[in-house]
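Session log. Operator J.P. requested a structure for one protein chain; no other inputs attached. Running the standard single-chain path with token output.
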Amino acid sequence: MSMQPDYRISLQGQVISPEFRARLALLTLHDRRGMQADQLDIMLTDDDGMLDIPPTGAELTLAIGWKGQSLTERGTYIVDEVEHIGAPDTLNIRASSADMRQGLPGKRTQSWDEVTVRDIITTIAERHDLIPSVGTTLAGIRVVHIDQTDESDLHFLTRLAERFDAVATVKTGHLIFVPAGQATTASGLEIPPIQLRRQTGDQHRYLVAERDAYTGVTALWNNKAHATREAVTVGDPQNAQQLRHTYASEQEALEAAQAEWQRLQRGVAYFSITQAVGDPDVFPETPVWCIGWKPQIDATPWIITEVTHNLTDTSYTTALQLETRPMD
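Structure written below.
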């Protein structure tokens, strides 16, 4: 007996998915890392004209999986757009994750001086009634000075994450700030890797490109004591990429070089796969080992950057985007 997809959708706390049975043309959930809002798209047939159009701003909750198994809760979403088209009549609903819909609103101007990364994340989390969760390797890093000038907390956090090669996101009431590509939770625990076998895949794409083959990264900084501009390098200086910006201190230059070097190492190759049997329990930042592809693919440590679930009443697939994961 073949497996049958299952889902549960609630509108304003009331389960409405039974009304969708035999109407669901497609349900798509995009789960992204970082400050991009997760997106839920639902396409329903309305040949008989009996579907009600939900109001924008309405709250949807979603759980997905397979019949006969426990469904996986996938969060709360706020309806952004509704569209009714025809013929044949179809109702399209688009919603974004409730955690990210507001985008940490409000522009602020302030200077952060002699604080840790944990201090910054905690302060911003408290402003927005969120619980701070900071990766252990980032929490104690001291920030001598950084300005937030007429800038939203969302934009500032994105900039801070880029500086430290981190992932900043809001999930289930938590403001999370963890190292990118390190496959760790905010508490420092390793996320266990999953295995992707060739026989579970429907389609795949592997891309590796010889870019500039940098061996390291160099950043410049102003040494005010000696009125000179000096350099720090992470990796091998023989063919190092030089960052354009000149930093105020040696520490800032070193942090920028380390972050860029980590990004370069993650961008060596990319892999995408569509799983023929959807997996509701897979999330971004999960480490992956591939089995059954080309030796170069199987030998590469991967990490998931984006997950897309596609469901109908008869099929459920999961598309994964992966990048290389640096190993210690």
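Operator note: The CA atoms of residues 7 and 64 lie 4 Å apart.
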